[in-house]
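If you are new to this repository, start here. Below is one unmodified record pulled from the training split, so you can see the exact layout before writing a loader.
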Amino acid sequence: MRHEADKAVVTLAGEIDIGTAPRLTAAVEGALESNPVRVELDMSGVTFCDSQGLGTLVVLNRAATRSRSVLVLAELTDFLDRLLHVTGLHQAFTIQNDDAADADGTGDAATS
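And here is the target side for that same chain:
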């Protein structure tokens, strides 16, 4: 996780599933403790996400909202983009891709 002026960036890699969801939850909850305006999840390295992973993202989105922060899913892979559209969850999240990041000046590489 990396902290910047008003945001925390968490870089994800591999699968988001029942085995990894607790670590993701801990990372985002830890990021929220510093009261950032936004928590960005760099999703560019995510290769798989099951229903447990989707549920975890929804819960974390709510947690961020309760903390007066915004959870941002950044750099979605094609797989994740399709998954969010098929499940109808695409509209539930704030999503940022390279083009949006470059346009608002926040598009820098994320590190763990």
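Two things worth knowing about this chain: The two ends are 5 Å apart (CA to CA). Confidence is low (pLDDT under 50) at residues 100-112.
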